[in-house]
Specification:
The chain is mainly beta and 551 residues long. The protein is 8% helix and 20% strand. The chain contains 5 helices and 33 strands.
């Protein structure tokens, strides 16, 4: 099997970007930063504003600053990957930096006739924090592994490599103007063309495709117009820039909207010239939709996590529930509604579950900044397991609609919103933790990927009849540059010289709601005044002097 999930649908064009120039830093600043990295004191103030510094310090080792690698680099142990249905042992830091991980390890990459992709570098990335033209792809090497409750995604492009491994995938538009339909959504959508209603597939507009070619009445017969063979997709007029031609308001979906905005379409985002739209329509598009005056209505969720999909369209969506097909409205999940009430088999009759009347909608996890993270249902319970939104599986949220999710099983606790865990949860394999100069203990490879009492029954002090009190406390590894927990994180000794994006690895009990009894006697760094120090002293060419450690 390929590392790309059969249902993951990234944009084409991998490897077309030119090589990135390496940043040049003043010698005094570079030296200071290198020293800071060695001591593990590069903290959130500088990192949030100067993340590209890390890329410069590590060269291209940790990918583009716009799409940095995730995972740990330089740890001991092994990761078990699934390749063509078989378990294959990779290094423990698989995907944590840009390397040709498959070379000499993947079964296909052994011998004299290894394919080209074996020598190409790649790493795991967070699709929510990946702003490069070539979108990352969902991995199948570790199908159950998660990073902050999202499936693992990988990228060759962030490592300036060409992806010759992944099978050809659909196009979801230019980086500044992605398609907004649900690709591979089962069912039908009724489009209004003139005085007639014409049936299109429910996935219409979800990728760049000549949608009219087999559906539009004018495109049938021996001499169809030129535009019938042109590719286009639906787009968000307020998230569409950098094109040769602006998007146009669509008449196909009648009163249908996307987050309260009339649905628009674009040929330009698919690399095509628009020979379909009338001159009047093109002139009207020059004025464009007034995005500055548009406020997303409450019916489309919280502003920090708006619903995606179309609202108020005709047709039907065919969902799978317990192996059976169930017909929902065509705009399923496009706004906050109790979609399951009296439709889902479990929600019919007098005695129904509480979740039947709760409102929810589909959301884009990359644009969802609320306390309760959105969820992706596993394939066996997902309503539309093959459907994709901009190449991601469909995610949903009750929280953005002000509801409580009692439908899904609880997700792993991956820390507070401002200080998420950074380990790879559910990763199969082992990690060797360094507990002393000559002592190493085997932990699961997923260590630190969620809030859990990782030391219980594993750390030597946690075995026997009288384990230490801290053994039962939950903690996880965190990014010191992206952690605003009230109690600062602590530098970890477990992973030795390993790093996360070039930074020493820290851990936090506070982000998991527990007290740090493990190192309560150790000194913690005092972040107070950090940003002020950086801002004033950086301008003068000096590295900030740190406050004295707090007890």
């Amino acid at each position: 099997s390929r590392r790309l999930s059969s249902a993951a649908l990234p944009a084409p064009g991998e490897g077309l970007a030119s090589r990135r120039p390496t940043m040049k830093l003043p010698a005094v600043l570079l030296g200071a930063l290198l020293a800071a990295l060695g001591e593990g004191v590069v903290l959130r103030g500088v990192m949030n504003k100067q993340h590209s510094t890390l890329v410069a310090l590590g060269g291209d080792k940790f990918g583009s600053a716009d799409c940095p690698c995730i995972g740990f680099e330089g740890i001991e142990g092994d990761t078990l990957a699934t390749v063509d249905g078989k378990e294959v042992k990779y290094p423990a830091d698989l995907g944590g930096s840009c390397e040709a991980w498959d070379e000499g390890t993947s079964p296909e990459c052994k011998g004299d006739k290894a394919p080209e992709w074996c020598k190409q570098q790649w790493c795991y990335v967070d699709p929510r924090n990946c702003k490069i033209p070539v979108m990352p792809k969902m991995s199948t090497y570790q199908p159950k592994a998660m990073f902050q409750n999202m499936p693992l995604h990988y990228s060759y492009s962030t490592c300036d490599a060409k992806d010759t491994y992944t099978a050809e995938v659909p196009d979801v538009g230019m980086p500044g103007c992605r398609c907004v339909g649900f690709d591979n959504s089962p069912g039908k959508t009724m489009a209004t063309i003139g005085d007639a209603e014409v049936e299109f597939p429910a996935e219409v507009g979800g990728q760049c495709k000549a949608w009219d070619e087999v559906a539009h009445p004018d495109c049938k017969g021996d001499k169809p117009p030129e535009w019938c063979g042109k590719k286009w997709c639906f787009v968000d007029p307020c998230a569409c820039s950098g094109l040769e031609a602006p998007p146009k308001a669509s008449d196909y979906l009648g009163n249908g909207t996307f987050q309260g905005k009339k649905v628009h379409y674009s040929y330009a985002t698919c690399g095509e010239k628009d020979s379909y739209s009338s001159e009047e329509k093109k002139k009207e598009a020059e004025t464009g939709f007034n995005c500055s005056a548009h406020k997303i209505p409450e019916s489309f969720g919280k502003e920090q996590c708006p619903c995606v999909g179309f609202d108020d369209i005709k047709g039907e969506t065919v969902a799978k529930i317990e192996g059976k097909e169930v017909k929902f409205p065509a705009d399923l999940g496009g706004s906050c509604e109790a979609w399951d009430d009296d439709v889902s088999p479990a929600c019919k009759g007098n005695e129904t579950a509480a979740w039947c009347k709760e409102k929810w909608c589909y959301v884009d996890p990359r644009k969802c900044d609320i306390d309760v993270m959105p969820k992706m249902a596993p394939p066996e319970t997902s309503y539309q397991p093959e459907a994709r939104y901009q190449n991601l599986p469909l995610y949903y949220s009750y929280s953005t609609c002000g509801s409580k999710d009692t439908w899904a099983a609880n997700m792993s606790n991956v820390g507070l919103p401002g200080c998420r865990c950074i380990g790879i949860d559910n990763s199969p394999g082992t990690t060797l933790a360094k507990l002393g100069p000559d002592e190493k203990v085997e932990y699961p490879a997923e260590i630190g990927g969620e809030c859990k009492a990782w030391d219980q029954e594993t750390h030597p002090s946690c075995k026997g009849d009288k384990p230490a009190e801290w053994c039962s406390k939950k903690w996880c590894f965190v990014d010191v540059a992206a952690c605003n927990a009230q109690v600062p994180p602590t530098l970890s000794e477990y992973l030795g010289d390993a790093t996360f994006q070039g930074k020493k690895i820290y851990f936090s009990y506070a982000t998991c709601g527990d007290e740090n009894l493990y190192v309560s006697s150790k000194e913690l760094y005092n972040h107070t005044g950090y940003e002020d120090d950086w801002n004033t002293e950086y301008r003068n060419g000096h590295y900030p002097k740190w406050a004295t450690p707090a007890p």
